[in-house]
Automatic annotation (TrEMBL):
One of its GO terms (biological process) is ubiquinone biosynthetic process. InterPro entries: Coq4 (IPR007715). It comes from Chamaesiphon polymorphus CCALA 037. It holds the Pfam family Coq4. PANTHER family: UBIQUINONE BIOSYNTHESIS PROTEIN (PTHR12922), UBIQUINONE BIOSYNTHESIS PROTEIN COQ4 HOMOLOG, MITOCHONDRIAL (PTHR12922:SF7). The lineage of its organism: Bacteria, Bacillati, Cyanobacteriota, Cyanophyceae, Gomontiellales. This is Ubiquinone biosynthesis protein.
Length: 212
């Protein structure tokens, strides 16, 4: 386990309620900023310490592997590969691999891996970046991580449904598939995605037992 991760596990400042409030305030107009606030809110909480212990045990040796991503290089891969699809997704969203990495993660390889993994998980699971896609992915990852971030995203489900009633059937379908598939799938946190960019998405899903 990395030194930085160990230090974070030992910190006992608790949940940052101010950051949690900011996350709820800005999430709808700016989801990326909301996610950064929720990561800051949970950083020193006992919940997050428990989650990191679980995930680091599942991830094993790759906890200390440094992830580097070259989007231009990945764009040379076919669009049906993990890396090719991920690079195109990032460009479409206007994101970079560093979008969800704050200063606290600069020297934390495992934290960086988890932050970068979110958009990779969109490709792995087949959930797009629309609101109902994000809810589906949150359901999948909450079952796998049991973390505050995905719980936070799922907490918006009733409010979204009330304002988007025509999307409710697809929302329910995505939530169901997310919970069921996340429960049945192998642990995504243990999958070294940076070493499997060239694999087809279908192959990756078969390896991880992800329901398509």
């Amino acid at each position: 386990m990395t030194t930085v991760l160990t230090q974070r596990l030992r910190n006992r400042q608790g949940l940052n309620w101010g950051e949690l409030w900011q996350a709820y305030r800005v999430f709808m107009p700016d989801p990326a900023q909301g996610i950064l606030h929720i990561r800051e809110a949970e950083r020193y909480s006992s919940w997050n310490r428990w989650v990191l212990r679980r995930l680091s045990r599942q991830a094993g040796a790759i906890c200390d592997w440094v992830v580097t991503v070259d989007l231009e290089q990945l764009l040379e891969l076919p669009p049906d590969t993990l890396g090719g699809a991920y690079a195109r997704h990032m460009l479409e969203q206007g994101f970079t691999p560093e979008t969800f990495i704050n200063e606290d993660l600069d020297k934390d390889p495992f934290g960086q891996r988890l932050a970068i993994a979110h958009d990779v998980q969109h490709i792995m699971t087949g959930f797009d970046s629309s609101p109902v896609g994000e809810f589906g992915l949150a359901a999948f990852m909450f079952v796998q991580y049991w973390d505050l971030l995905n719980f936070f995203v799922l907490s918006w489900t009733p409010w979204f449904a009330m304002g988007n009633w025509k999307s409710i059937p697809q929302l329910l379908a995505n939530l169901t598939r997310g919970f069921v598939s996340g429960w049945r799938a192998r642990a995504l946190v243990a999958y070294p995605y940076e070493r499997n960019w060239a694999k087809s998405i279908s192959t990756v899903r078969q390896e991880l037992r992800i329901i398509e």
